[in-house]
Structure formats: C-alpha cells, structure tokens
Design goal:
The chain is of the alpha+beta class and 80 residues long. 16% of the residues lie in helices and 38% in strands. It has one helix spanning 8-20, and strands at residues 32-41, 47-55, 58-65, 74-76. The chain has a four-stranded mixed β-sheet, with helices on one face. A hairpin with a 5-residue loop joins strand 1 (32-41) and strand 2 (47-55). The radius of gyration is 12 Å and the shape is elongated.
C-alpha cells in the first residue's frame, strides 16, 4: 500500500536533510519531489501541491498548480 501522504511540515525536515546530504540525492536533482499531503489554494481558486525542487544549488519548495500536466520528472514522497 502506497502511503504518499507527506505534506509541507514533513517537507521542511526532508528539505533540510536533502540539503545537508546533497551527494545522496544528486540523482534526483532533475526531478521534483511531490508532497501531496498539503494542498494550497492559489489566486483564481486554483489548487496547488507542495513540491521540493532543485533550484540553483539547493532543494527549495515549489507550489505547482494541479491543472498543469505532470511530466515524468515527479516523484512522490512517502513514509516507509
């Protein structure tokens, strides 16, 4: 059973860990890590999901609109 339920609070810890261990997560730098446990409502009533994205030289939060297409670069964050 997939438990892909991590959200923004979990993502803060994950972001810090990934930034402190950049070499471990180098292969994911071309990906984005979806944290589906937190949905945010943007302007125009659009729903956004929290993601971790490699930007520059660190992992940062992104908030992607659910109406955008999902490419093959997404990976769900889930507890083991």
């Amino acid at each position: 059973e997939m438990k892909a339920n991590l959200g923004l609070v979990d993502g803060e810890c994950l972001k810090d860990y990934m930034n402190a261990n950049k070499d471990k997560f180098k292969k994911f730098q071309s990906k984005y890590i979806v944290l589906p446990g937190t949905l945010l409502r943007g302007s125009g009533d659009s729903l956004r999901v929290t993601c971790l994205c490699w930007i520059g030289d660190s992992w940062e939060f992104g908030f992607d609109w659910l109406g955008d297409g999902w490419g093959d670069g997404g990976r769900f964050a889930c507890s083991e």
